[in-house]
Design brief:
The structure is a homodimer of 430-residue chains.
Chain A (H helix, E strand, L loop, with lengths): L9 H9 L7 E5 L12 E2 L14 E4 L13 E9 L13 E5 L11 E4 L3 E6 L2 E6 L21 E3 L7 H9 L4 E5 L3 E6 L4 E2 L10 E2 L2 H12 L2 E7 L4 H14 L2 E5 L10 H8 L2 E4 L4 E2 L5 E5 L2 E6 L3 H19 L9 E6 L10 E11 L2 E6 L16 E5 L11 E6 L20
Parallel strand pairs in A: 4-5, 11-14, 11-15, 12-13, 15-19, 17-21, 20-22
Antiparallel strand pairs in A: 1-10, 2-9, 3-5, 3-6, 4-8, 7-8, 16-18, 18-19, 20-24, 21-22, 21-23, 23-24
Helix pairs in contact in A: 1-6, 3-6, 4-5
């Protein structure tokens, strides 16, 4: 018998999932392998940057008071008593009338308080000594990089939950993190359902298609910072399916299934949730594609029942699984970043459900535009290769046209703490 | 003696580097390891998608001609002769007055031409048989997904040089790519110079700082799709430096050095290029940070002489090394994507050189804004952790203020084929 399900809004579905977040434990990884991982702790400066007064230029460390009277007509002459490269320290006091040749990054000699860069000096050899001439006065502190001017010991530099990219690595290296405290990657299992699915190396036969979802979802998990474990394709038998799902759930932090959540005769997931004693958070969302997306919870672990249709499966992961996964990684920006932008195509047909249109973003003279790519059906796969955003078209009685301002959700940006709010009004007691 | 160098524009420097691009060879990798790699070949559909007419819904495959007279008052009754799940095929002819129960994804029975979804049917058991009643006529083709409606065999789906993300994986899996043709990653060597540099596990001592550039650049190489090989820190001795650089260059596709390219006493790179017989493309760029960035070529291999200052090193890599590396990966979008946007801070002091300000992008009501992060000096490191864009402020006689429209270059987006054009006018014969 056909089962009527009551749809909830996208925002409400996200809220229910995010009520059940968990956060992962810490582990240490070598800095060379830390790229793409998430910081488990805030990074606090344990020393000043720069750690000492230093020269940011190649030039001469001087005592500024020596240059008060300097002018083009009456240059001041200073004796160069030593050359110090970066990493070295001056070996003697610097007296009035003296200077030290210093290279970029060199610690300032204690007696000096200004830098005369090469371009502002004239070098002279006389009396068996080396000299420089300066044609203008220097201010105390001129051209000096002062200890702590960039960062002071104790400053909070990077928040826990930050994804580690090259710029973060630079800071970690600066503060000596050979081993970096990162969040253990959540292990996300994947079970595919669908007897129509062929493995990638099998030839096509009538009625069957290749299993693209399992590989796509593994890649989505990796992109979001998790560790996928693929349990293969479930057998076409309820008891075997049940055992496989229950067994996999024991070994993972969360379990994704693809397919089997609709109301078809072989859609076993609803029964499996029941037999598991899992709490079904929702089994119908007022969205396209992916209205059948189902999420259930068992002993604190989530079961993400994604659609078997590729576009629906993809969107379901990004809207519901990804934020859960990012929260596990301590991110305070778990949701897809979204903004207003301009739609470049017509969607004249109204739809009661919110549509998420696979799209490509362009930046045109400072405005954000989104161009739908390919067909807009839930079973479509090819458009996913070209999408970098989803355009949200709230459900209602009207269509949309090119030039309309719409909400654009970015697929490949880091994220936001502020979830997209779906303004679609749902009919009550439907 | 202080060496005068003649600066060239950023655009010209990029042009000179990109005249010397090479493209990498192909290798096959398992689809599970293909994420983040670059396609070595275009992906062409070798079969139609869908590969056969199929139902996109759970319902009944029918012969539309049977329903012409159907109405709420006079529903048409059809006998359900078989149930076929996705992956299965019908085992008998379907005659007029008959229907087949089919699940989402099932191949259409040859004799049927429309789908009546569950929601539009009433199921009845009578005379020991199963029946459905339909209360409206169905059009030929109604609700059917037709073979090839999404993609036709021979369609070019994804271009060579595309970075592989989850959406690309979905298409590769659909077309049976267990092994994916990707571009071999270029091997990029890194040598650090600077006797002030401590390894990460060494305690700080006066005058010394930790080597952040080597780790940062390794991460930048990985992010851009290359394979870094770190050769460690060069000794403070010209001959040893020369041998190390010459030796490393033999083993890599390109070599990055950090530091040693300026005019300081221990800046050996200019001499090393000379002794190698390398062709110096440029050694001064009208930009900040990173004006000393130097690129040389030896036997078709590039030597990227990046600054030792962290921000300058970072920017030099992104502006010059990254596009070369992406071109190696067959990308036709090797340059940082850029657009107009709004600056949110004042830079009142004019600068003759183009400045690249480390910034964070926000999308505010469909407009792109860029907010500078941290101090704007070449030796600064901490701002890199928070930047996702560079704001380009062309050189000239004026400063910039909050609200000005500026060019914003995105650090973490895929790229563009159209390099940023630096409008700074350089004085000739300086």
């Amino acid at each position: 018998m056909y089962e009527q399900r009551t749809p909830i809004s996208v925002s409400e579905a996200v809220r229910r999932v995010m009520e059940l977040t968990r956060t992962g434990d810490k582990e240490l990884v070598d800095i060379k392998g830390a790229g793409g991982r998430y910081l488990a702790e805030a990074i606090i400066a344990d020393h000043n940057i720069p750690p000492f007064n230093r020269t940011p230029l190649d030039g001469f460390a001087i005592r500024s008071e020596d240059t008060i009277a300097a002018s083009p007509d009456k240059p001041v002459r200073l004796e160069v008593i030593e050359t110090v490269g970066a990493g070295g320290v001056v070996h003697q006091p610097v007296y009035s009338g003296q200077a030290v040749r210093v290279m970029t990054g060199t610690m300032m000699p204690e007696d000096c308080d200004a830098i005369a860069m090469f371009e502002l000096t004239k070098e002279i050899k006389a009396d068996g000594k080396e000299w420089i001439e300066l044609k203008r006065p220097f201010q105390p502190g001129e051209f000096v990089s002062f200890e702590g001017e960039e960062t002071k010991a104790g400053d909070a530099l990077i928040a826990a939950g930050t994804r580690i990219h090259a710029g973060v690595i630079a800071v970690l290296a600066t503060f000596g993190y050979q081993n970096v405290p990162v969040v253990k990657q959540p292990v996300i299992g994947i079970c595919a359902t669908g007897t129509e699915l062929l493995e990638l190396n099998e030839p096509l036969v009538p009625g069957k298609i290749r299993n693209s979802n399992a590989y796509m979802v593994q890649a989505q998990i990796r992109q979001a910072g998790g560790k996928p474990v693929y349990y293969g394709q479930l057998a076409d038998d309820f008891e075997q399916c049940y055992k496989a799902v229950a067994g996999a759930l024991n070994e993972v932090d969360a379990l994704i299934t693809t397919g089997g959540v609709s109301v078809g005769d072989f859609d076993y997931l609803p029964e499996i949730y029941e037999k598991l004693g899992a709490n079904v958070l929702f089994n119908k969302i007022a969205m396209r594609p992916g209205s059948v997306t189902t999420v259930a919870e068992k002993d604190g672990k989530l079961l993400f029942g994604l659609s078997g249709n590729p576009s629906a499966c993809y969107v379901g992961f990004e809207l519901f699984t990804r934020p859960w996964l990012k929260a596990f990684l301590h991110s305070n920006k778990p949701y897809m970043e979204w903004t207003k932008g301009i739609l470049t195509a017509d969607f004249p047909k109204p739809n009661p459900f919110t549509r998420f249109i696979r799209s490509k973003v362009s930046f045109v003279a400072g405005r954000i535009t989104a161009t739908p790519v390919g067909m807009d059906k839930s079973q479509v796969v090819t458009s996913l290769a070209k999408s970098d955003a989803l355009v949200a078209l709230p459900g209602g009685s009207r269509g949309y046209k090119a030039g309309d301002e719409v909400d654009i959700l970015f697929l490949h940006r880091e994220g936001t703490g502020d979830p997209f709010h779906d303004p679609t009004k749902l009919r009550k007691n439907k």
